[in-house]
Structure prediction request, 268 residues.
Amino acid sequence: MAMQILHHSPAIAAWDLPHAAAVEDLLKKYIKTLPGGATIAPPRLFIYKGKAFSRACPKSGIDAPAYCPGDHTVYLEMGLGDQVAESYGDFGALSIIAHEFGHAYMFKSNKHPVGKEGELAADAFAGGFARYAEKNGALEPGDLDEARATFASVGDYEVYHHDHHGTPMERRQAFENGYLLGFRLPGDRSSETSAPPARNRSEPASPKPRERDSSPTNQPSFPAPNNQAERPPGSSAPVLGLVLGAGLFIALLAGVVTMVARAREENW
Prediction:
């Protein structure tokens, strides 16, 4: 879990213990905003000079930024912090603390990837923290660029080495992804916000029911429906047929009367 600075570039910055303590307090608050973070005890931050020794993590000495799961402690050597601050800026050094806190959070969540993926996930955690710090007004102009340069500097191209942590581009991009998208535990989708599905443009939106208004002055001034205009026009065919039928009946009756009269005359 140790970070080793491989590249350097000139910069003017200051880094001190009060700022480290302020970042530690902010990191504790940030962890509580993450899934399960409210129940996770934050790690102890131990800042020292030279080498540190811990029975929980037996080594010849811890001389680089590291997280020890055995004693749940983040170790940061001050000389290296000064070196990073001078090369890349104060927030670059402080972002290393965030990276190691990311290891602690993932270990306690039992979702810590192994190898390179674990390092990139911790970089993303640092990016998510940078976003949180920015929202809380804790960043200064240029701080994000300092962090980006720092994470690019700890990348390497020894892709086949067992301790390969990612290329410079991969590490910087992991930080950037955490900043832009927010950090979430590897394989965890519960922290994703679900956006409402986009409506099909060809599909009209359902109209919202209009609330009934008791005030007549607010009623829309639509013209009243014309019932006569809506009624289909009446037909004169039945009347005409009646007249024609009556005339035909009269003519037929007259013809019958005439024929009966002629027959009587002939018989007479």
